[in-house]
Structures are given as structure tokens and as C-alpha cells.
Amino acid sequence: MLAQRMTLLSGSGTAAARDAAKVAAATGRQIVDLAAGEVIIAPPRTVREGAIAAIEAGTNRYTDSIGISPLRGAIAEKLTKNTRVAWTAENIAVTNGAKQALLDAAFAILDPGDEVIIFRPCWPTFPSQVLLAGAKPVFVDVKAPDYIPSIESIRAVVSSRTKAIILNSPNNPTGAVYDRATLRAIGDLAIGYKLWIVSDECYSNFVFSDQGHESIVTSHPGIRSRTVLVNAFSKELAITGWRLGYFAAPPEIVSAAKKLQSHTTSNANVIAQHAILHHLCVSDGTFEREMHERLAKTRQDGLKILLGLVDVDVPRADGSFFFYLDLSGLLAKLPAGSSFRSANDISRVLLEAAGVASVAGSTFGDPNGLRLSFGAPPERLIPALEKVVATLNSLKNRQSAA
Ligand code: PLP
């Protein structure tokens, strides 16, 4: 008999989508994976060199549970530059990816019964971790085309139990990038109600609109003492498997994470820590620039193809590397007897009929959404998107996948 806590968790919808793609591929079919939350590209040479040098130097010991000091210092420097707010190593904890940074934050600030405001569609780990901490997710639904919450909609769900708001801009899955006015208003609200802000900025390097990424601590410097700013190298350096993330926060949160990590995972992988430190010390930013250029181009090319959709609006895709389609219009137009009643059905037909793996919005708490990653190699992405458009446009005349 498993612990009660396990009933709080469902499996990862993204992983399930990728598993379905693997099963289809195992039958010999050509499947294009647009379900992955990562950019398919080799990691930077500087990271690989740093790892090899650390291995050759015989680096093998435990480190401080929240990371080696020079790495914490280098991250503080990077964040100071990026956010235009001063950080020191005292503010930084190095973690096993952003996921652990978020879990540290949840365990450090939440008590059983506390409520946490989450904007939905949302990355499912946010509510799962809130539940694990004994607290309650309170959702505010955001809508196409911009998927940005209004302040009134947030204020409407604040209660005496509200403890925190989780922000994720640029957003997975919607691609929304929050504007300065919204961030300032959320900051004012958090200060007014004495709430924490947990700001997941993992996709900060992937903004394609003119406004660029701005952290809430830049938009609203007064919010800093109640913010846990989470980020990671997973996406920006295409090293999702290396497990290197961090957060920046007031020192009491860093001390809490130090205790937590010392009793859970100990330090993040020491070789990865040295590899990233090397990258931060010697890199001139070419990798990040080139990756951005590639994604900006595939985004443009992809959006042009999506213009061919008849009953689905072209998404804004301002940030992250996802096209998030709102299928509600298309679903409403399908004939009453159609076997496609939800985005789940449509995701399934895309896999079966077009050989394209996608993630249905139900994974993110949205029955009408469909997420397609443009982190796939361009030569595979473009033909796959053409098939997606042809398949979606044919649904009104199609009774089943076959
Ligand atoms: N935060 C968001 C919004 C994500 O989409 C993901 C991964 O998909 C993560 C965090 C996880 O990052 P990491 O791999 O660094 O734990």
C-alpha cells in the first residue's frame, strides 16, 4: 500500500506523449517528435571542455549542498547583468535543475493549507509540487491569444490563506511573455497581500518579440525581498540531462534550501557544476546567440506554415519554443458525430495519421490546447508542421485516424 501522498501525483503528460511516439516509432514508422520540451542541438563546446577538464583533474567529491562558491558567484554576476538588480553568492543556491529549485521554494515557504495561485494552462509540475508541500493550487484560467492574467482575475481568488503566486514568463506551454505593466501590477498585489512570488524564468533566453524578457525583479524592484527567482541551464544551454539549475532569493530561503538539499539530494553533480562555471567564465555568448537565431528562424518559418490553418488561429509564440494552438474553434466546428471531441483526440490523430508527436493541452489543465515544440531540428520540423496543418484542415471530413 503506497502512501496517501502518491495519490496527489499523476504521471508527466509530456513523458506520456513521448512514450506514445516511441511506441509508434518502434513499429518502424517515421515519427517526428514535437512533444519534447528541449531544443535538439549539441551543447556548447565550452561546457563540454569544462566537464572534461574537471574529470581529468580527478574532481570527485561532495560539494556544499547548494553548490561551489565560484559557481554561485558567477551565477550572481550573470543575474546581476541580466536583471539589472544586484545579487551576491549569498542569494544563490545551485540545484538539480529548475525542478529542485521550485521544490525547495515550495518546501521553504508553504505550510499545509496554504493556497498558491497558478495561471492555467500551466506546466504540471507547479501544482504537483504545491500539493506535495501540503498546500492547495488555486487556478486562474488565462485565455488565447495572449494568455496573460488580468489583475482583477488574480485579486478575485486571493484569500486569507494565499501564500504565493507562481509566475512563468516566458511561458510553457503558452509562449506568453508577460509585459512590464502586468509584472508591476502583480508585484504591487503581492506586496499588498504579503505574498511570495515564485518566478520561473527558465525560458528567459527565448523571447522573439521586441519587448524582450524582463524579470519581475527588474519590473518591480520592490518585490525582490519576497521573490524566489528560478532559472536553469537546462534549456538555455541545451543540457536538460545534466541537471543544473539555481534560484536567487533572500538569504533565509537559500539557508532553507541548504538544509533541504543536504537531506535529500546533496549537491548537484560536481562535474556539471565545474562545466557550467567554465562556460560562464570563458564563453562570449556565441552559443546562446546562435541558438536564438536558429529558433527565431524556425519560429518564423513555422508560423508561416501555420497560417495555412483554416479553423485555428496562428499562435503568438512570443517566447519559449512552443507553438500553442487553441483548438476550441476547430472542435466546435466538427460535426456532431465526429470521433474527435477533444485536443487529446486530435493529438492522437496527429500521431497516427501524420506521424507527429504533440502534447495535448489536458496535460496543462486546458482541454482545448495543443503544444508543438519548435526545438526540433528545422529539417524535420517544417515537413512535420505541413502535415499538422493538412491533418487539422482535413478533420471536418475525417471520421477516424485511418
Ligand atoms: N520550468 C518549466 C516552466 C519547464 O518547462 C521545465 C521543463 O520543461 C522546467 C522548469 C524544468 O527545468 P529543469 O530541467 O532545469 O529541471
Automatic annotation (TrEMBL):
Family statement drawn from the similarity comment of this UniProt entry: Belongs to the class-I pyridoxal-phosphate-dependent aminotransferase family.
The EC number(s) this enzyme carries: 2.6.1.1
Enzyme class per UniProt: transferase
Keyword Transferase: yes
Annotated keywords: Aminotransferase, Pyridoxal phosphate, Transferase
InterPro entries in the record: Aminotransferase_I/II_large (IPR004839), AspAT/PAT-like (IPR050596), PyrdxlP-dep_Trfase (IPR015424), PyrdxlP-dep_Trfase_major (IPR015421), PyrdxlP-dep_Trfase_small (IPR015422)
Reaction it catalyzes: L-aspartate + 2-oxoglutarate = oxaloacetate + L-glutamate
A Pfam family: Aminotran_1_2
Cofactor: pyridoxal 5'-phosphate
Every Aminotransferase class I/classII large domain range: 30-386
Gene Ontology molecular function terms on file: L-aspartate:2-oxoglutarate aminotransferase activity
UniProt-recorded name of the protein: aspartate transaminase
